[in-house]
User: What shape does this take?
Amino acid sequence: MINFQYLRTTSAKSAIALLSKDKNAKFLAGGTNLIDLMKRGVSSPDKLIDINHVPLKQIEQVGNKIHIGALASNTAVAESALIKEKLPLLAQALEAGASAQLRNVATVGGNMMQRTRCGYFYDTEMPCNKRKPGSGCGAIGGFNRMHAIFGTSENCIAVHPSDMCVALVALDAEVILANAKGERRILFKDFHRLPGDTPQLDNNLKNDELIVRLEIPIHPFSKNIHYLKVRDRTSYAFALVSAAVAIELQGNQIKDVRLALGGVAHKPWRLTSSEAFLKGKEATLENFQQAAQLAMADAKGYGENDFKLKLTPNTIIEALNLAKSKA
Amino acid sequence: MKNLMVKDENDRVDGVLKVTGQAKYFAEFELPGLTYGVLVTSTITKGKITGLDTKSAERAPGVIAVLSHLNKPSAPLYEQEGGSPMKIFYTDKIFFNGQPIAIVIANTFERATYAASLVKATYEKEAFNTDLHKALKDAAAKKLQGQPNYKRGIENAYQTAEVKIEQEYNLPIETHNPMELHGIIADWKPNNQVTVYAKTQGVKATQNTIANVFKIPLTNVQVNSEFVGGGFGMGLRTWPLEIATVMASKHIGKPVKLVITRMQMFTMVGNRPAATQKVGLGATKDGKLTGITHTAFGESSTYENFTEGVVNMAKFMYQCDNVNTAYTIVPVDLGVPIWMRGPGEATGAFALESAIDEIAHALDMDPLEFRIKNDPEMDQQRNKPFSSKNIKEAYKIGAEKIGWSQRKNKPGSIKEGPWQTGYGVSIGVFNANRGKASVKGVLKADGSLLLQSATSDIGPGTGTGMTLIAHKLLGIPVEKITFELGDSSLPTAPSQGGSATLSTVGSAVNDVCVSLKSTIAELAANSNMSATSDFISVLKKNNLPSIEVNKESQGGKERDNYSLYSFSIHFVQVKVHELTGVVKVSKIVSVGDSGTIVSPKTARSQMVGGAVGGIGMALTEESIIDHRYGRYINNNFADYHVPVNADVPEIEVHFINKPDPVINPMGAKGMGEIALIGFSAAVANAVFNATGKRIRTLPITPDKVLA
Assistant: This one.
């Protein structure tokens, strides 16, 4: 086996200190993706810093925000009474992800950090600019049925596989990051990156930083919400397209709305122009259809994923329909 | 609620062992000094190995040996010239990507895994093709006749029929993917005695292959395989990786365990090959079939030919005077396929049973009515009566249970919100086999019965079925009956495949029990006991601790006079989402017509398993290759989608349960294959009924529904 050092720590401070000592160290939380990557030879850290005992598992209301510790498990968040009441869209998105067994150990921070499931990324015998910059993109011209239609580059058309992150970007979450000097916060929508010329970078986390927690403002979106995940089988499958929808209705008028997509881009994909279009309008099928078309402005298919050009607006419409119809 | 701890005589005899983890599978055997093998596989698709650097692997911690074509570990058959081209470690040729080219043996699995990653091969690459469709377009690509062409009446008669359809149907590669990974433990002793713990569907077949390759007497090879974690056909041969492990054990003089990875399960232990088929059907305006033409092309490999019964069903399943079929195999640069549940018939039934639905639609007829109208009275292919066939009754039961009367003949008629509902039906058929098997029975004065045979149980419940046959004949309580299998030293039995085990081995169990019964009756008479005396008192009276009977059993000439088939009818209801293209199978009724049901619970389980496999074939399963590289893209359980519980609705199973008068003493026909055959067409037909969209390429994923 490829030897690596395993370290365990019980505080965020010491975790950060350990990380700063070794460029090729990685934090280990649930390990549901990292261990696979290590087995496949995609990732070979010298040092694994086990942070599972760091007390960052809180799920609590602080003022008008919900705080979720980076090490809270996906199951703990999805099943939390507080989340179900205040952020039901997040609970729904989490429940749509992975399998019960994976959710039990996967953490919020780990979910954000998971790598793409693009098959070329995992096969070290294939080209992949994300794994090996400059080696080419196997998915372009290859098997790209699962791949992105928004924000792609000639270097990478991979998608971020998370469901949770789609709900978080819709809900205006913020991410609190810490390094030895202190904490900083960035908007969730700015956490993940588009591939551009640096497909090897999934996000803007710096290599001396630890994800500490999420802060999510409490919205009036408690009733008319829906997370719709379209996939090849009913459970334990990544999204072909998913849509997170939250509407605040006044009668049939849309007072406020949030829309985001999964399975279509290198990052969770917020639909701000569709939101702006819908705000103040009647919640009618015609308006939903127009909002869905607006979302498709810059979409581009790569052959096998061309069907997403039709499935994506349909998914948006259906998610809006389902959110609206919740009594 | 039913108390599950209360035993039912129909329970699986090994159920408790399985659910409590006491059933021991091959990889769980711990032998003293056990070592671990890991395979190195080719990263090119076709060509020649020009160099293999094993030095760093050999120097890695814990490594005992690295074996490859460079050191040709001893295997006398392979040392001869000629023979199979895929003689592992005796060839430098690469026939497919992921082909095993070396085995690294170390004192731990992790060390072997690491060392295997250090073996570096260099290759001389050749142009290759892994794509069936590309080969079909290429006139220069090799194509071989897979089965003699068949014709009765006028060739292509459908073309001149009053009403006709002609369509092409495509299936991707499906991979068996049983939960249990493939592999073997081999323990070669200095006296050339070898014991293996295998994952096999035939302990005797494995024994034969090993004895043959290593040129040792059959009795020197002991094969153990009591429990198998799913086979679906992939355990029907001894693969090169198993030979490699035996070679390794012989070479290092220690037991070696090899368990391959999930990724390796896609390349080196076979698959259901991709196929493309054309079906032409012609009928009179009032719905009588006048012509059937079924032509099929199936993938095979370049180093071994693989054929299966893709076009068999067209020859006899419907009353029709004009039928012609052709089946061609197309070698591509992939590992050789192997039978997968319902083998070729499942592939062919998707095409034929979809086409039957298509012509019924073209006639504006209820497809069920069309089927009944064209149900054959006798087997026109062989010009023989069927030994038993209750298809019309099965159609009736299934139609009633699924609620066929709710179905509208016009597609897209039933809609609730965005969900469209449709109904589909299809038929499955498979040869009702019976082979030759031996069983030993020992009836003991303690009231117990021991039965032994070198058969296998890959999951259907062989031991349970055999126990119930004996129980019914002798009246011995099931808990007093033990059926031993999965051991090559037991009386000979064939491999478990082709739905033949219950018929074949069960007949021998029957003969053993009949013989024991008459021996007891004889003993009773000779010792002046009444004819109704129980066997325990008879044995005791005669001072016999036990009596033993050995029987070999096989069928007679019944096949000369009859056609023997098992049948199934699958009814499904689906719901299709008009915006997302998602298909949900919402109701299933499968009706089995396979003679007497010997073991009702495990028979039901077979049908349930077949339906689940059928959902996979219809909606989710596809092994995807990037043909530019010849490598699989979705070779893991996250991306190769076998159905999950949430995909599977309640499955209603019904059996005709009428004895077949000729097949065997039980009147029972096999049913492992029919549980799956035809199912995918029932789903496709239901999707058409729901939406008006005919999807002729499996699996029916949302993108195809939306297209």
Notes: The longest strand of chain B covers residues 289-301. The mean pLDDT of chain B is 97. The CA atoms of residues 293 and 324 of chain B lie 5 Å apart.
